[in-house]
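Case study.
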Amino acid sequence: MKHAYLTALILIAVVAALAVGSQLLGIRLYDRIATNLLISLVLVVGLQTFMGNSGLLSFAHIGFMGLGAYTSAVLTIPAQMKGMALPDLYEFMTVLEVSPLLAMLAAGVVAALVAAVVAYPLMRLSDAAAVITSFALLVVLYTVMNNWSALTNGPRTLFGLPKTTDMPIAAVVAAIVIVIALLFKESRTGKLLRASREDEVAAAALGANIPHLRWRAFILAAFIAGVGGALWGHFITSFAPKAFYLKETFLIITMLVIGGANTVTGAVAGTILVTFAYEGLRGTEGALNATAIGAGQVVGLTEIVLALAMIAVMIVKPGGLFPNREIGHILTRTRRKKEIVS
Amino acid sequence: MAFAIQFVIDVLSLGGAYALMALGLVIIYGILRLVNFAYGELIMVAGYTMYLSSGSSLPWLVMAVLAVGMAVLFGILTDYAAFRPVRAKSVTAVLITSFAFSNLLQNAALLFISPRPRNVPLPEIFSQTVSIGGAITPVRNLITIAASIVLLAAVAFLMRKTTLGIAMRAAATNFTMARMLGVPANLIISSAFALSGFLAGVVGILWIGRIGTVVPGIGLEPLLVAFIATVIGGMRSLPGAVVGGFLLALIDTTLNYTLSQDLLKFRDAFTFSLVILILLWRPEGLIKGPASGQRT
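After joint prediction, the assembly is written out as follows.
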């Protein structure tokens, strides 16, 4: 248990270093990238609470992020702007206007409630069927967001969210989420769930109610995704349902998998690594587009490189960079080894 | 009466296409217990092959054969790129590599061809309509029905009567045992991918025949259909996939006819809710597959 504290400490220090570092540099672009990174961190660590502990791949995570973003949007867009931003909004909602912090919590709760209802039957499914249905769930959530014009403005861009997310807030939320993920991992539910990940039959024989355990983890992941969505919505301030679909799903899964899905450390490492790679590639793509040969035609290069990197990591290290031990655990072990040697 | 005929033709033509899509996915899943996320991209490959060869003066049938051939080739390529290197390591790893491979192909199409829809050459007959018992129906629906009957029969024959089919079914039932009895694992897996690619190619042409254009994201809907049909059908049973495909088509078509315009936009959400209800009732799917062996 001691090494879990150490892990929490180190990971929070990393978050703080990112926050302070980008602030010290004082370049606005870096500030934006760092905030984006911290929001991704919230989402990826949230996904880790489900995927890492249960061992099931979930594609629906970004859908819950979308739910959170839209919930928070409906709750916080100023009443006088609602007529323009959401012309078809239901009457009683037009007067709603709560503080962004409260809206962020509400976003998490709404996502968690939806997850609790839809995931209950899904968690009974076996491994591949569960993955497939989570993929279908993503499509359904997207369909609903894309068509429920009254609440989401349909496929058009929704604008007018107050810009309340800045870097310190994102950093604080990211740090809290890291602590929650570590606590959950070491909790009774988390431990039983990890046992079921290693051996479903043995865990069930010991009395673990696997569908129920998975259900709890899924709800927690959805809650974090909802909070992350609200955080992102108030950072970007205008978005369309397209922002919560396959491209973003691919990105957060890449982050988690390259870092190592089984550990929170892996989630953090993967997010940082992939964000830097992504921004670098994006820059290259932009530069190519600016030249005569590219001429604005270069699209998808970033994704191609990331996909190749993902396949390569899976072949060389199928568990990711931190396959099963948290950073705190690794450090205490090496220290103990040294003591034994001396 | 005309309405009834219309309805039956719609269900059968959609169901035939769905069943073929589901079959292509289940053939791989049955043997490897692994889901191929890059399956939809095989349909995309078939479509772009048609588009790229449309400049040549080849007869349409040759182009179609070429398209199916490319789908088969990319099916086998999927095996080599995404499955073989990680197959023995973990289920999640393969899910991710195949997902990454799917992304790779899509973005390659985006980068090297175009994000915009491209026209696919189609023979006259695809756009003609015919009247049966008062119901006016596009000929392509009848072609789809005919093609699916022929292909389903052919696959049934292949699986039941030929050495290759029997070896594939043996591998699906108990892979380790099949290998011990001398079934060459890699050959069987590659032929399963080839067969899957073949089905995807044919479905691709029929599917694109409905729309007439191809875009990089075209594989998503067929992939989703195949996914849901296989989950309803029972994941590992070939007849289950066919039943699941037709059932899904029945649900979809019924919703198409009964939902109002406002609700029709949410059709996918309704379909999926029904699927959840079916799974609550039978979490294993409708038809149980062969006795489960250990994943290899």
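Observations recorded in class. The interface with chain A takes residues 29, 33-35, 81-82, 85-86, 89-93, 95-97, 99-101, 103-104, 106-108, 110-111, 115, 220, 224, 227-228, 230-231, 235, 265-266, 268-269, 272, 275-276, 279-280, 283, 285 of chain B (CB under 8 Å). Chain B has one domain: 2-281. We will return to this complex in the next lecture.
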